[in-house]
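Our platform keeps sequence and structure together, in a single record for each protein. Because each token names a local backbone shape, the row as a whole describes the fold. One such record is reproduced below, unchanged from the form in which we store it:
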Amino acid sequence: MVNAKMVAETKKAADPVALTQTIQKETQIANFKNVGQIRRRVDATVKGHKTAEALKPWYNYMCKRSAFHNAYLPTFNRQNVTLADTEGRGVERITEKGIVFISTCGVEMGSSSTNIGKMGRVPCMASIPSITQSALAPNFQHRLNEQAKHIAFFTAETLRRGAITVETSQESQDEWIRIIIRIGRLREGFLRECTPSYYDDEGREDMD
């Protein structure tokens, strides 16, 4: 992982503390520039001042998902569109007479009419290859190469064992989660300064 490699390089530096401080300072400057560019884009696109101010991000880049469709901001200029500002509280409840709330993320859990519900557990969801969720690297070709080798390995191993399905063991899942948490702690200071979101478990300071 990139974070782990950065830590390794920092430890080998003549002055690790100074190098770390330099990286943090340069990262923060880049954050200011990037998010400032987004705020200027909001000003240039959204006509209503109050709506534009509510849409502006006032947190570091990647505290939340900042990418959006090119038609996202212009949508708020339409007469039939109103920004519902929850003042950071998010959705607290859904009622039959409330506004229409469309949720398009995640998978439906526990339904008895689906295979997921019948098995009573989360699907494997082995999304390989993928350009987004299953891997992320600044070098696109490198990622494709690593994924191709991974696919070739477990496909060959499946055939060698005479199996017809592949499923990750619970032990492997648990170990991978431990690795993610260990590496993720490198971003704990960054996330602590973010506005609450699912990235930091709605503002929790620990990652346990």
